[in-house]
Amino acid sequence: MRFDVLTLFPEMFEAVLGESIIGRARSRNIIELNFINIRDFSEDKHRRVDDYPYGGGSGMVMQPMPIYNAYKSIIKDLSHKPKVIYLTPQGKVFTQSFAKELANEKHLILLCGHYEGIDERIIEEIVDIEISIGDFVLTGGEIPAMAVIDAICRLIPGVLGQEESFRDESHFSGLLEYPQYTRPPEFLGKKVPEVLLSGHHANIQKWRREQSVIRTYMKRPDLLEKAPLSDEDRKLLNNIKKD
Ligand code: 4FL
């Protein structure tokens, strides 16, 4: 899968997505990431990419032409038309199921805004999908773009190792993670739950499932509505609600 990112800060991306699991997937050619500096496509002798807003007001607005030129340079020799995503608080909120949908694409272009925003005409002309990573405002779309790329890439076959990808599968879908422990068996007087030391695989599975269900109920009850629950899970929840 290929991603092209249009940004005024390409160095931010290499620092984050050149490392660790995503860095390894890139060097193994499972994913291709390109970071394109919008400033390189300015037609101004001072390389300007922003200007004052028509109608007045504070802040600056990113001009449409440098973004359009950068976009054209990506698609000029392509036979397909990659979807263009604009990261904005006005977009559809990003979720795991949204990530799964986008993981089916072969090529995405991500556009990161700065200043007070970008000229509306570029959104009308080239943007297919507007995505928000949550109801808060950042200084730019770079961190949201990295979050979206990371969430999509870990779903692509071969990016995670056998173990990591297996752990994530179906069994606990839509629920929060169960608690994890490692050595030592006692830390600051707190013991690891007995069942995890028992070696009894079926009991461990049952305990973990219960912990996931209980945690989701306590911390994120909104997620329970969509999570696939068994009769056993529902019984457990009814017992909790009683006391
Ligand atoms: C984008 C915030 C996506 C949340 C400022 C510029 C943003 C954002 N999700 N804040 N873009």
Can you characterise this structure?
- It is a single chain.
- This protein has about 240 residues and is α/β, with parallel strands linked by helices.
- It has two domains: about 1-155, Alpha/beta knot (3-Layer(aba) Sandwich), CATH 3.40.1280.10; about 170-240, Trp Operon Repressor, Chain A (Orthogonal Bundle), CATH 1.10.1270.
- About 40% of the residues lie in helices and about 15% in strands.
- The protein has eleven helices and nine strands.
- The chain has helices at about 10-15, 20-25, 65-75, 95-100, 120-125, 140-155, 160-170, 195, 200-220, 220-225, 230-240, and strands at about 1-5, 30-35, 50, 60, 85-95, 105-110, 130, 185, 190.
- The strands form three sheets. It has a five-stranded parallel sheet, with helices on both faces. A two-stranded antiparallel ribbon has the order 3-4.
- Helix 4 (about 95-100) links the parallel strand 5 (about 85-95) and strand 6.
- Helix 3 (about 65-75) runs parallel beside helix 5 (about 120-125) and helix 9 crosses helix 11.
- It is elongated, with a radius of gyration of 23 Å.
- About 20% of the residues are buried.
- The mean pLDDT is about 95.
- The chain binds 4-(1H-imidazol-2-yl)pyridine.
- 4-(1H-imidazol-2-yl)pyridine binds next to strand 5.
- 4-(1H-imidazol-2-yl)pyridine binds near residues 87, 113, 133, 138 and 144.
